[in-house]
Amino acid sequence: HKILIEKMNNLADALDHYSTAKGKEQTAQAFKALAEFTVKHFQDEEEFMASINYPDLENHKKLHKALLEKVVAHGKHVENGTLDGGALISFLHDWLMRHILASDKKYGKFSQDSQES
Question: Residue 117 has what pLDDT?
Answer without folding.
Answer: 64
